[in-house]
Amino acid sequence: MPTIDTTLDTRVQQSLRTCYESLLKSGQLLTKERLAECYALFRERFGPDKLQSLDGEILLNTIHGRSEEKDSLVYWLEFKNDAEFKTNNFGSIKGGNSLKFGIAKKIDAGEWTTGNAINPTILTTDQAVVEARKHRDQLLAAATALQDLPDIAEDQAYLALQKKLDEIAPDVCGVAWGHKYLHLLFPEKLDDFHVDLYQRHHLIKLLLSPVSSSGLFGSAGQFVRVAKQLGWPMNHLTAVLNERDGNPIRYWRVGTKLDKKNNSQDIWPDMIAGGYAAIGWPALGDLSGLLNEKDSKEKIFNLLNKEYPGEYNPSVASRKAGEIKNFAREVSENDVIFAADGMKIRGIGRVLGPYRFDDSNPEDAPHRRQVEWHDCTQWKLPVSEGLQTTFKEIKEDFGTLVEAERFLLEPVMKPSIVNTLPAPFNRFFASFADRKSTRLNSSHLGI
Questions:
Q1: How do beta strands 121-123 and 112-114 pair?
Q2: Around Cβ 355, how many Cβ atoms within 10 Å?
Q3: How far is CA 248 from CA 23, 262, 428, in A?
Q4: N or C: which end of the chain has fewer CB within 10 A?
Q5: What does the DSSP assignment read for 143-187?
Q6: CA dist., res. 371 & res. 351, Å (int)
Q7: How far apart are the C-alpha atoms of 447 and 439, rounded to whole Å?
Q8: Among candidates 104, 156, 164, 166, which has minimal Cα distance to 132?
Q9: For position 395, what pLDDT does the model report?
Q10: Residue among 372, 337, 371 at smallest CA distance from 354
Q11: What is the pLDDT at residue 147?
Q12: Who contacts 53 (Cβ-Cβ below 8 Å, separation ≥6)?
């Protein structure tokens, strides 16, 4: 696999630099000197040489001591927040329970435990020491592997690193705290996104297709090269990405034509004109009242069978109920919508508002979401994902998601202009735009 080019789109570069200047002006970026102090302090307290020199209960408590004591490695990684060291400046690993570290000491009984929070396994102190040694040895092995990695390594080297760490340090390198430990030792070789979902999110927002679909280390080289291109410390790059990109989003494909019983009515012109995405099933009525219920899918399933008797077999009805539930409940603000006709993508938009029921024209598509549509030349999905569905999440092909983000940098469509025309003209306008963009771009899009 060749190294992926990380030369950034000029528009992306500009947005990053604008965000950087804002954070710098407001004092939200640590100086290079302060970063160096924090990394040196952490290495002095918990670096490989320090951990190698410890054993027994001292090692156990140095790595896994209770948070109330405020001096263990796991406390520094998750909670420490004082003038000496603010751990959230280096990526958060909060959430879950203390057994995410492999072992933990129960506050009430003072017993060491492992396993899961619902049914933990009690360990003797000697058994807990064995676990701490295992964690120590794996952290040291992983640190050696990172030390041997070149400062600017190709993607193949990072993918090989991921494979090696899976083999030599499986208990610490597949979890957030182990990744954060290694980042603090090698801050210019690893990013500080300690969940791979966040890594993929930020790479796609950079218009870079992640080279790895799983694991915390395979895609790190892409962040390293971006930081080098911009001339920033890794910590500054990730701070800017967190501020600019926000939390991970989801990508959804919505059909633009209703079913054959409605003569395959094309609602894309109405979606453009109204600034929304929509799906059919008008007889279900307003679903707002049941969206927060745990059995919402089951209730939609029952409504489908009641309002559209005999139209679906149980399997199809269950699938359709899931699609409707996802559209109404699972979509979040800032999620991205692909407006599709088969494999043809007609528009890309960003979700701006919650579910609403609106049976104004077109009355056959009353379930709606406010969407900001962007100018988009027609193109074909490279993979046939979700073609037999009305509404489906797209997540298998990173290239498709990157292409969507690229189109979101294009100007916003102006639905208000289209809306001033009667509905027949709206449809003519949209169909004309479709034909025009197809003629202009089919030569390189393969349409």
A1: antiparallel
A2: 17
A3: 21, 36, 37
A4: N
A5: HHHHHHS-SS--HHHHHHHHHHHHHH-TTTTTSHHHHHHHHHHST
A6: 4
A7: 9
A8: 104
A9: 87
A10: 371
A11: 97
A12: none
Neighbours of 266 (CB within 10 A): 18
Beta carbons of 369 and 355 less than 8 angstroms apart: yes
pTM of this structure = 0.89
> How far is it, in rounded angstroms, from Cα 112 to Cα 283?
57
Structure tokens that stand for 13 in this block: 């570069």
Q: Name the residue type at position 316.
A: V
Q: How many residues does the chain have?
A: 447
Sign of the C-alpha dihedral computed for residues 255, 259, 265 and 267 taken in this order: negative
Question: Tell me, what's the pLDDT at 415?
Answer: 59
Residue 165 near residue 173, CB atoms below 8 Å: yes
SS (H, E, C) 304-340: HHHHCCCCCCHHHHHHHHHHHHHHHHHCCCCCEEEEE
Contact 386, 367 (CB under 8 A): no
Q: How far is 60 from 53, CA to CA, in rounded Å?
A: 12
Q: Are 336 and 365 in contact (CB under 8 A)?
A: no
Alpha carbons within 13 A on the beta-carbon side of 301: 12
d(CA 329, CA 345): 23
Residue 322 CB neighbours (<10 A): 17
312-351 confidence digits (pLDDT tens): 999 999 999 999 999 999 999 999 999 999 889 999 999 9
Q: For residue 58, which amino acid is it?
A: I
Asked if residue 190 lies in contact with residue 220, where contact means CB atoms within 8 angstroms, the answer is yes
Residue with tokens 């058994």: 127
Q: Which residues pair with 400 in a beta bridge?
A: none
Q: Which residues of the chain have pLDDT under 50?
A: 1-4, 416-447
pLDDT score, position 421: 40
Tokens 């710098």 belong to: 24
Q: Which helix (H) or strand (E) is 127 found in, with range?
A: helix 125-148
CA nearest 318: which of 303, 297, 292, 295? 297
| 386, 392 Cβ separation under 8 angstroms | yes
C-alpha–C-alpha distance, residues 153 and 145, integer Å: 13
Tokens (6 digits) for 365: 């598509």
Burial environment of residue 114 by CB neighbours within 10 A (0 to 12, 13 to 18, 19 or more) = middle
